[in-house]
Amino acid sequence: MAVGITQTVAAATTSVPLCLMATFKETPSLDNFDKLVQALKDALGPSSGLTSDDVDVEYLTRLMQDYQSDEVEWSRFAFGDASRGYTRNLVDEGNGKSNLLVLVWSPGKGSPIHDHGNAHCLMKILQGNLTETRYAFPDPTSSSSSPSSEPEPMQVISEEVYRENEVAYMADELGVHRMWNQDPDNFAVSLHLYTPPNVARGGCHIFNPETSKKSHVPKCGYYSAYGKRLNE
């Protein structure tokens, strides 16, 4: 189901010359969310992502910070499913070396502890609050990696609540994390820019919080793409 507001605007009564009608249909006006999507794409250009020498991460962050969330503008991408922890909804694939997603978080649910497949992520909260619990990346050389050793729980580094319109950055060198929506009654929505789009192509690892054991999720697909629900 789509989350958020769907607004229908009545047609204007002012007559439009026939010669201009085709032009109006071909060049619809962009709302501020559309402008943000285009600005992010333009800023990334032909680069390989956030770590490229020709990409200004601070500028990308400012673009996300400057956008004031408007449910009417992004709700067409926000498909939620209360039976899941969250859904991944594709908005744009940039130059093929990034992807921009709207994630919809079910009430009281969230993600497992996961890495980002060596990708980098900028996140903006569009609706509600999200809690991030960040963990140290398990050391593959530690005794817990041995089948005969005692399991060791994941080590918590920090926990932070991000609120509407706040922006955060995450990458594997900062650890692994879990995101969740603590609100038991309402969906939360966030915007994520991933570069490169490794998780969509090759999956990611999830981690057991009690034992630190990891397992590979081979592919993290999309629940919808470009505002259209996908068949699974």
UniProtKB/TrEMBL annotation:
Reaction(s) the record says it catalyses = L-cysteine + O2 = 3-sulfino-L-alanine + H(+)
Q: How is the cofactor bound?
A: Binds 1 Fe cation per subunit.
* Binding-site residues for Fe cation, renumbered to this chain: H114, H116, H177
- Give residues for the crosslink 3'-(S-cysteinyl)-tyrosine (Cys-Tyr): C121-Y194
One Pfam family per UniProt: CDO_I
Composition bias, Low complexity: 142-153
Q: Which UniProt keywords apply?
A: Dioxygenase, Iron, Metal-binding, Oxidoreductase, Thioether bond
GO BP, sorted A to Z: L-cysteine catabolic process
First-level EC class: oxidoreductase
What this protein needs as a cofactor is: Fe cation
Residue numbers spanned by region Disordered: 135-155
The record's listing under Gene3D superfamilies reads: Jelly Rolls (2.60.120.10)
Enzyme Commission designation:
1.13.11.20
Question: What are this entry's molecular-function GO terms?
Answer: cysteine dioxygenase activity; ferrous iron binding
| Sequence similarity | Belongs to the cysteine dioxygenase family.
- UniProt xrefs under PANTHER family: CYSTEINE DIOXYGENASE, CYSTEINE DIOXYGENASE TYPE 1
Q: What protein does this entry describe?
A: Cysteine dioxygenase
